[in-house]
């Protein structure tokens, strides 16, 4: 008897709560958003804000203690020190080279999977492009370390031509990063090519354009936003990377390595260096947004 | 576009080369785990299975695998809760700053890992250390969860946008409470999106190295950290080779699961 009474009481309590929630959408919204926003804004954005504020602090060169006095010394150093400038230019160059290489390799692959391959086989090909994305990042870089090491696959393949592999260094870094982010470029181009209306291509041919002309005047302009969308990944993922360059880059230094090497002794400098890739990526995103590519992400 | 025969053949060769470039490195990792030699010279002098049994008994690798699984499960659990909450707020409510919320969710994965890593590292240092809490597995889970939220959010919000709220309204017209309607109507609708999000979230966490480097306490070694630390040690090379090969083989599992979870949710939104 008593248990029945408590069950009934509990049920009516649940009902009342449900009713209260139903009548107050604002309360519902608050309950939904409080926990995740506390996490993302207080924990994440808060940490980021403190980090970027600390870029304006300095480090006492004797004690390695952070001195919390506002100064733009770090940014001044960033612009005037030749090593920093060199590394920043090199990092942006690597990110651009990786992006261009990815686009050049991705285009024929995507064109084949989207328009040349038999339609029945296309879904399987898409899976084949996706599969490497699930393989561990580190394992893929390690694979290239194996390929490029002395006496490895690259040396063996190029030996008949009287050449050697590139070894570890800047070219190896660009090559490995291209390999890592290639699927991110193939997929959007594949999707764009797949959705290209066949009538447009027919119309272009009817008007007397050959394949090359149709490609330049019809296909390319329609696929370019997707290339831009893919480039957001290839560019920003390359720009922030410092692990790959440690594994296959030999002595090559990129921004990430400079940030990493400054963390222990000069956190404000590391923070200032860390703002560079963030700033470049934001500028890149703003430039890309003008092409309308972000909506197709 | 009518392609000439030679253009078709050129494209076929180009695509073939592209797929070869994608898969040869992965196959090389598999073959190399059977290489009896400690160096990575090609071709291997023979094949052996003895490194596989050596790796099976390697306590460092096994321990690291276990830490990675714990971190992945923890981060996924948090990401599922937070990502789903935001997805419901964004998809079912209109409010000031809705666009900003979707932007903030993406930020942890859009910014370079090293920036997220050192930001969290110094925040943990200043907030947690005075409380007597040091870096450990817990801080790794917090760091991973921060960038895993976005994949759960993406999957769930995409599903919610395609299903209107009218099902829930119908359930409530029939007398169901808000909770009842959620359990019996909404949850079954988003279940496969949740699974896809969880799968992606676990994979992201399992693969993460940069944020882990900055949030892991002493003695906390995930599998990527272990691989990175042992990669350049010639003595450990054979075991690293086997671990790498195992990870390549394991990457088929999520692909299989994602395909079963229906192509539209899992495959299209890795990021």
Automatic annotation (TrEMBL), chain A:
InterPro entries: MetI-like, MetI-like_sf
GO CC field: plasma membrane
Transmembrane parts of this sequence: 29-57, 87-112, 124-144, 156-182, 218-239, 267-287
Record-annotated ABC transmembrane type-1 domain positions: 88-288
Subcellular location: Cell membrane
Gene3D superfamilies, per database record: MetI-like
Record protein name field: ABC transporter permease
TrEMBL record, chain B:
Residue span, ABC transmembrane type-1 domain: 65-258
Coiled-coil stretches: none
UniProt-listed GO biological process terms: transmembrane transport
Keyword Cell membrane annotated: yes
Membrane spanning residue stretches: 9-31, 71-91, 103-124, 136-160, 239-258
Keywords: Cell membrane, Membrane, Transmembrane, Transmembrane helix, Transport
Pfam families listed in its UniProt record: BPD_transp_1
Signal peptide range in chain numbering: none
InterPro entries: Bact_Polyamine_Transport, MetI-like, MetI-like_sf
SUPFAM superfamilies the UniProt entry points to: MetI-like (SSF161098)
Any one cellular-component term (Gene Ontology): plasma membrane
Membrane topology (UniProt): Multi-pass membrane protein
Cellular location(s): Cell membrane
Family stated for the protein in its record: Belongs to the binding-protein-dependent transport system permease family. CysTW subfamily.
Protein name in UniProt: ABC transporter permease
Species of provenance: Streptomyces griseofuscus
């Amino acid at each position: 008897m008593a248990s029945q009474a408590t069950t009934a009481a509990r049920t009516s309590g649940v009902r009342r709560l449900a009713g209260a929630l139903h009548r107050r959408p604002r309360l519902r919204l608050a309950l939904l958003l409080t926990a995740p926003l506390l996490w993302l804004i207080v924990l994440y954005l808060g940490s980021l804000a403190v980090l970027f504020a600390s870029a304006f602090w300095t480090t006492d060169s004797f004690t390695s203690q952070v001195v919390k006095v506002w100064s733009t010394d770090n940014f001044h150093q960033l612009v005037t020190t030749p090593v920093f400038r060199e590394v920043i230019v090199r990092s942006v160059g690597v990110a651009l080279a990786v992006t261009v290489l990815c686009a050049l390799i991705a285009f024929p692959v995507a064109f084949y999977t989207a328009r040349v391959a038999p339609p029945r086989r296309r879904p399987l090909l898409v899976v084949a492009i996706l599969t490497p994305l699930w393989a561990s990042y580190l394992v893929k870089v390690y694979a290239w370390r194996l390929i490029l090491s002395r006496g490895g696959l690259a040396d063996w393949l190029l030996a008949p031509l009287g050449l050697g592999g590139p070894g570890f260094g800047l070219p190896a870094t660009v090559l490995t990063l291209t390999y890592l982010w290639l699927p991110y470029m193939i997929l959007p181009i594949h999707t764009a090519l797949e959705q290209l209306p066949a009538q447009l291509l027919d119309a272009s041919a009817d008007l007397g354009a050959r394949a090359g002309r149709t490609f330049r005047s019809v296909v390319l302009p329609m696929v370019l936003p997707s290339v831009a969308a893919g480039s957001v990944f290839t560019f920003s993922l390359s720009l922030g990377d410092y692990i790959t360059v440690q594994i296959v880059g030999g002595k090559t230094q990129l921004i990430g390595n400079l940030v990493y090497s400054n963390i222990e002794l000069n956190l404000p400098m590391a923070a200032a260096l860390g703002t560079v890739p963030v700033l470049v990526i934001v500028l890149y995103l703003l430039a890309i947004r003008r092409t309308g590519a972000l909506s197709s992400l | 576009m009518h392609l000439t025969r030679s253009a078709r053949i050129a494209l076929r060769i180009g695509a073939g080369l592209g797929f070869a470039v994608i898969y040869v490195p992965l196959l090389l990792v598999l073959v190399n785990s059977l290489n009896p030699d400690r160096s990575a010279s090609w071709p291997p002098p023979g094949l052996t299975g003895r490194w596989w049994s050596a790796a099976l008994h390697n306590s460092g690798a096994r321990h690291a695998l276990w830490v990675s699984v714990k971190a992945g499960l923890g981060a996924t659990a948090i990401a599922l809760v937070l990502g789903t909450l935001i997805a419901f707020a964004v998809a079912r409510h209109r409010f000031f700053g809705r666009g900003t919320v979707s932007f903030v969710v993406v930020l942890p994965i859009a910014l370079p890992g090293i920036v997220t890593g050192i930001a969290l590292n110094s925040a943990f240092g200043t907030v947690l250390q005075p409380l007597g809490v040091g870096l450990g597995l817990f801080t790794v889970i917090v760091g991973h969860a921060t960038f895993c939220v976005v994949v759960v959010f993406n999957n769930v919000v995409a599903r919610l946008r395609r299903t209107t709220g009218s099902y829930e309204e119908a359930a409530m017209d029939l007398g169901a409470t808000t909770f009842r309607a959620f359990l019996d109507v909404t949850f079954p609708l988003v279940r496969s999106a949740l699974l896809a999000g969880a799968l992606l979230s676990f994979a992201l966490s399992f693969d993460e190295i940069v944020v882990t480097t900055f949030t892991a306490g002493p003695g906390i070694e995930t599998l990527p950290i272990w691989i990175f630390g042992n990669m350049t040690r010639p003595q450990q090379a054979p075991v690293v080779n086997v671990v790498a090969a195992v990870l390549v083989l394991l990457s088929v599992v999520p692909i299989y699961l994602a395909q079963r979870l229906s192509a539209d949710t899992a495959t299209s939104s890795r990021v």
